[in-house]
Each structure stands twice: as structure tokens, then as C-alpha cells.
Amino acid sequence: MPAARSRDELIQVTTRDYAKLQKLLETVDVALVERVDADGWSIRDVIAHRAHWADLFLHWHAEAVAGRAVQTSADGYKWNQLKDYNAMILAQSAG
């Protein structure tokens, strides 16, 4: 399917793809979800990390639409501190 060209198409694609992800995750063994790679990240960690950044992006968008100044990367962090920020995300999503 080509890229979504409207809000309704984007919602449709997102809903469809999220349902696919949920279905796939239901088939994955819990032990595999928790197993960490060489960098210390598990499947669960990656999904939590991506969800956090998606929420952060939506926050930036809402702020911009409201005419407010957008603070990127995240409050209290500079782009060169992403390793620290990502470690904080990982710690918050643990368990």
C-alpha cells in the first residue's frame, strides 16, 4: 500500500499494522521477549523505547500545532545526551 495521504488513511494503516504487531507478539515466547542481546536490549525494551519516542514526537507535534515552542530532544537533555536519555527510558520501562 502506498503511503497514507490523509489522516483517515494514516489511522487505517496504523490500526491495521498495530493489530498485526499484537498478533505477532502473542506468538512470541515470553522467554524470548525477555532475552537480551549483546547490547543489553530485549524485544520488550525495543518496543517500549519505540513507543516512548512515538509519544514524544506526538507531544512535539501537539505543541507546534498549539503554537508553543517545541523542546527537542527531551526536556533536560541535549541531542548529544541521547545515550543517557535512552538509558533512562530503558530503566523506566524495566519490568
Task: Report what the structure shows.
It contains 4 helices and no strands. The protein has 95 residues and is mainly α.
Short description:
The chain is mainly alpha-helical and 95 residues long.
The main sheet comes to:
none
**What count of helical segments does DSSP give?**
4
- The total count of strands amounts to 0
Integer-rounded radius of gyration = 16 Å
Overall structural domain count: 2
In terms of DSSP E residues, the strand content is under 5%
Which secondary structure elements does this structure contain, and how are they paired or packed?
Layout: H1 7-27, H2 30-34, H3 43-65, H4 82-93
Features:
95 residues, mainly alpha, 2 domains, 4 helices, flat
